[in-house]
Amino acid sequence: MKKGVIGKKDFNSWVETLKKEGEVFGPKERTDQCWFFDRVNNPAELRLDYTSTILPPKKFFVPPRNELLLEFNLKSGEGKAGKAAPDRELILLGIHGCDMQGLLRLDLCWKEGNPDSTYLAKRAKSTVIGVSCNPDEYCFCTKVESNDFRQGFDIFLSDIGQSWLAEAFTEKGEKLLALAKTTEGTLLDDEIAYKAKARCATTKGPEFLPKVVELPLLCIDGEDLPFWKEDVGQRCLACGTCTNVCPTCYCFDVEEEVDLNLTTGRRLRRWDSCQLEGFTEVAGGEKFMRDQPGRQKHRFYRKFRWLTTKYGGSAFCVGCGRCGRQCTAEISIPETANKLFLGVKAKG
Amino acid sequence: MAELAKSLYLPKSATIRKVIPMTESEKFYQLGFDDGSELGHQPGQFVEVSLYGVGECPISISSSPTAKGFDLCVRKVGRVTEAMHQLKEGSKVGIRGPFGKGFPAEALKGKDLLFIGGGIGMVPLRSFINYSIDRRKDYGRIILLYGSRTPKELFNFPEFEDWKAGKKDVELSLSVDRGDDKWKGNVGVITTLIPPLKLDLEKTFAIVCGPPIMYKFVLLALEGKNFKDDHIYLSLERRMKCGVGKCGHCQIHGYYCCQDGPVFHYPLIKNIKEAL
Amino acid sequence: MAKPKVAFFDFSCCEGCQLMVLNCEPELLDIVGAIDIVNFREAISDRGEDYDIAFIEGSIITPHDVERIKKIRAQAKVLVALGACAHTGGLNKLRNFQDTEEAKQTVYGKDANAGPFFEVLSKVLSIGEVVKVDLAIPGCPINRFEFISVVKQVLAGVTPTLPNYPVCVECKYNENECLMSKGAICLGPITLAGCDSRCTNSQWPCTGCRGLVQNPHLEADQITLIKAGLTVQDILRRYRLFYGYSEVVK
User: Fold this and answer.
1) Mean pLDDT of B233-251
2) Stretch B61-88: mean pLDDT, rounded?
3) Does B208 share its domain with B166?
4) Are B80 and A283 a contacting pair at CB < 8 A?
5) Are B167 and B205 found together in one domain?
6) How far C153 CA sits from the closest chain B CA (Å)?
7) Which of C151, C155, C217 sits opposite A238 (nearest CB)?
8) Which residues make Cβ contacts (< 8 Å) with residue A324, sequence separation at least 6?
9) Can you give the CATH number for the domain in which B192 is found?
10) Does residue B172 form part of some domain?
11) Which of B64, B99, B134 is the last residue before a domain boundary?
């Protein structure tokens, strides 16, 4: 690992250098307190003190819609796969620990069984530079053990006041860090950096009663608890926001598009959501997930039971808080987890 | 990662060699890959049929891997299948697959096979029935209970007359929910065919495929017959959009129907409410 | 294959949907190249009565309208309802919640019954309530990209499908912050998508112009709207703006 301290006044010129190495994307402010990841044209636009973005970084690897899977020609009947990898390196600058964990979960799923080359090629051509967080009352990464500031990152930046402490964990990261004007950090810098990283743990987030390792078992015992139907399932608007903004949700649908020449066209991928009425509907009209309590349970169980046990233990919720922050009906993972925990406890 | 250029979602071109109308809404297709390769499937697996400009949908493979080419039987029920019904002999379609877990043809060697098919559920069963006929020495009795709503809706597969005539050693019982003037056979739901069966329960395995509503009643009837749970295999329908365990639509709890199914050993899904 | 003959007809409406068709500037030449437009009052003066595909804009409000749409239906092989007024009755359906006479007086004053022109049906009807509609392009006005997509699919002989999910899905694709969280009243969660959330993209709440999504979660929606400070009457008033066709506002 290589380390260095980048003065904040030198930081922007480093970002300018990064732009020569690849396409740089980072957090920007859209409206007051509303952030989103976008192309960094000018380093001054960066808001590395952001809390959370509307959409997680998954959008860079599987865009919300119109992702080219295939191109076809109706006259010749031929199809060919869309180009998987971008020409230039994708440099994501300013990614929080929870979102990195989200990407690592997605890596597992897209690699498993039949690897999705479209996703994996984009991931392979990406560099991720993390940044210490500025959590709010919705964040709960520590509760689901997703506050990791090393795993998956090429570089991690910790806010140490007038400077950034940069740690490079990979060869790619070391190469990029070498482009920055750095000074050697002190032991004190490390300690201040640790304090910045620990903000996730020291900021008061939502109450989260169960331990994350208990959740798969609570899911099994709490399948028939009435709150699924009477509370969460009843309040849910079935709008799909929670899954769209989730860093680990990756269900998708595929659509066709034919050009006006009626000859050329393409097959496109877009995000789908298990919360939507038509998600499990087959031709003929049968729906295998029939009601909203079932759909809400499906989402929660996928995060904390099915994928968790399938992939060896890590929850598929990384505690970024987006679903709760953006749910109009104010349904959140901690709330559901607590109801499950208390419900199962009361059952004895 | 450049070696990953091969897309999971790119179909392989196949040509429709023959179209046989089955019923008002179902057609039977014989296909073959244009590059001369074989599908190499297991009985009970499915493919994604792709029509460029329209879309893709999962279709059960109806032929035995012992035959050349492959057969699909398609019910006109959605956009893709409606478009497929317009296609003639010589038309090209895209095929991805075979996908999923089929019937446990190896594990069932030496056993008596009790096939229970309702309506279009007959399509994947035909694959295993023909396979067991072609490997006749490997299997014991081949019993087929096949039901549909009306006599007109029974599939007239090319070998069906042989089965009816008892030529292929298939013990066939038919039933329809509603008969017509010509129908002289059983009238009633398919479960009515189960109680009279004389079976060696230790040796018999049930293989069930039909519309969602059918499973519950068939399972009750098999239970009434003292059938053991682990002697039952079910082929389920779900929205298997991608076929490769990614898109999420076919998930049944921790299982992906397109990967862990569509054929499930009954004990695996018995306690999953949403499965059946 | 001969180019299909296409006609546009308008009934009670603002003709804004036809303007949206004309707004397809980058694609307009390609569209005109692929079809033969024989009747389009907003764009051409020639009239033809021989057509295969009829795009119908507006609602049915007079006995004369009923006769006219039936004739069009008899001629057209494919009849497409263009925009909310044709598809669901749209805003025009607001009149169904008032006394017809009162409504006439409000709009036309003392001339309300001046001639046969004002002879209206007791209820405003969508096109589908009078004749069979093959396809609908919802919205007030329509989304031109959806129009183009439907045209392409009709030409290709494929049955076009509408999204069956709510506006929130597209609103999130467009990475908007939820307007409800900022105190606005937005009908996005129960309104059919396909508009590319164009209103909320501009910080303007959804008023429901595309009609209700299939099986809307009304109870949940009402819980959130009441929390946002609306009364049951307020909610009904907002729902009636574009959901007047539906049982939910009765």
Assistant:
1) 94
2) 94
3) yes
4) yes
5) yes
6) 9
7) C217
8) A138, A206, A330, A331, A332, A333, A334, A335
9) 3.40.50.80
10) yes
11) B99
Total domains, chain B: 2
| Single-letter amino acid code for the residue at C193 | A
Distance from CA of C223 to the nearest CA of A (A): 7
Q: What is the mean pLDDT of residues A91-102?
A: 97
- Answer yes or no: do B125 and B213 share one domain: yes
As a whole number of angstroms, the distance between CA A281 and CA C164 comes to 11
Contacts of A245 in chain C (CB under 8 A): 172
Q: Say if residue B117 is in the same domain as residue B93.
A: no
Q: Give the nearest chain C residue to B83 (CA atoms).
A: C158
Could you tell me if A280 lies within 8 Å of chain B, comparing CB atoms? yes
B117 and B228 in a single domain? The answer is yes
Same domain, B46 and B136: no
Is the pLDDT reported for residue A205 higher than 80? yes
Q: Would the CB atoms of C161 and B54 count as touching at under 8 Å? A: no
C-beta atoms surrounding A165 within 10 Å = 25
Closest in C30, C33, C173 to A64, CB measured = C173
- State pLDDT tens for residues A60-70: 999 999 999 99
Residues facing C184 on adjacent strands: none
Q: Which of the 8 DSSP states describes residue A189?
A: H
Is C74 in the B-facing interface, judged by CB distances under 8 Å? no
Q: Is residue B240 part of a domain?
A: no
* ipTM confidence: 0.94
User: Who has greater pLDDT, A152 or B6?
Assistant: A152
pLDDT level of residue B3 (50, 70, 90 thresholds): very low
Report the number of secondary-structure helices (H) and strands (E) in chain C.
10, 5
Q: Supply the pLDDT for residue A242.
A: 97
Question: For the domain that residue B79 is a member of, what is the CATH number?
Answer: 2.40.30.10
Is the pLDDT at B6 greater than 80? The verdict is no
Nearest chain A alpha carbon to C227: A329
* Mean pLDDT score of chain A: 94
pLDDT at residue B5 tops 50: no
Percent of chain B having pLDDT more than 90? 80
The whole-angstrom separation of Cα A133 and Cα B152 is 67
- In a mutagenesis test of the C interface, which of A51, A137, A260 is the best target, namely the one with the most C β-carbons within 10 Å? A260
Q: Which residues of A213-222 are buried (b: 16+ CB within 10 A; e: fewer)?
A: ebbbebbeeb
Whether residues B94 and B117 share a domain: the answer is no
C5-156 maps to which CATH number?
3.40.50.700
Q: Percent of chain C beyond pLDDT 90?
A: 68
Comparing CB atoms, the residue among B52, B56, B250 nearest residue A74 is B52
**The three-state (H, E, C) secondary structure of A280-331, written as one string:** CECCCCCECCCCHHHHHHHHHHHHHHHHHHHCCCCCCCCCCCHHHHHCCCCC
Cβ of A251 and B248 within 8 Å? yes
**Residue B236 backbone phi and psi in degrees, to 5:** -105, 155
Residue B81 at interface with chain A, using a CB cutoff of 8 Å: yes
Is C220 in contact with A238 (Cβ distance < 8 A)?
A: yes
Chain A residue with minimum CA distance to C189: A239
Chain C residues with CB-CB distance to B80 below 8 A: none
The per-residue pLDDT for range C100-157, each reduced to its tens digit, is 888 888 888 877 777 666 788 999 999 999 999 999 999 999 999 999 999 988 888 8
CA C36, C37, C43, C46 dihedral sign is positive
Question: Subunits that touch chain A (at least 3 Cβ pairs < 8 angstroms)?
Answer: B, C
Q: Would the CB atoms of A254 and B253 count as touching at under 8 Å?
A: no
Place of tokens 């749209």: C90
Give me the domain span that covers residue B177: 112-235
In a domain, B107, yes or no: no
- Confidence band of C96 (pLDDT split at 50, 70, 90): very high
Contact with chain C for residue A31, Cβ under 8 A: yes
Both B171 and B141 in a single domain?
yes
Per-residue model confidence as pLDDT tens digits over A97-110 = 999 999 999 999 99
Tell me what the mean pLDDT of segment A45-57 comes to: 96
For chain C, the domains span: 5-156, 167-249
